[in-house]
């Protein structure tokens, strides 16, 4: 099966409870606990976004790991949405900020840019 170029993503956070609540409420999805990699994994906490291993697209997780910084570090992940303006509005209610309101990107639909409470910049994409 041909896969999309991005196979996995990790969003590093400092406060897992806050980050988990933010993403679950903004995206209306429930995250699932992941066993961290490595022998004991005691220094990492991971929560995965809902995924289907055989589906196209990227899967990923929120990660809390001592020494791993969060914030605007140059990686931008776009989450698919029905209407990105709706999710952008939810972000503000959950402690995030809207960096760029919903805007058209020609035949490719619409995007909005938001930050989460850890100051990670994320994108929202919809076709309407």
Automatic annotation (TrEMBL):
Domain (VOC) ranges: 5-127
Domain of life of the source: Bacteria
Pfam families assigned: Glyoxalase
Name of this protein: VOC family protein
Lineage of source species: Bacteria, Pseudomonadati, Pseudomonadota, Betaproteobacteria, Burkholderiales
């Amino acid at each position: 099966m041909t896969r999309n170029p991005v196979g996995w993503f990790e969003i590093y956070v400092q406060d897992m409870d806050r980050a988990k609540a933010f993403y679950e409420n903004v995206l209306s999805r429930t995250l699932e606990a992941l066993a961290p990699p490595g022998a004991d994994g005691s220094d990492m906490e991971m929560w995965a976004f809902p995924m289907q291993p055989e589906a196209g697209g990227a899967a990923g997780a929120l990660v809390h790991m001592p020494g791993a910084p969060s914030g605007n570090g140059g990686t931008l992940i776009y989450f698919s949405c029905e209407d990105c303006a709706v999710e952008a509005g939810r972000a503000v209610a959950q402690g995030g900020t809207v960096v760029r309101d919903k805007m058209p990107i020609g035949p490719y639909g619409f995007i909005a840019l938001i930050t989460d409470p850890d100051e990670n910049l994320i994108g929202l994409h919809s076709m309407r």
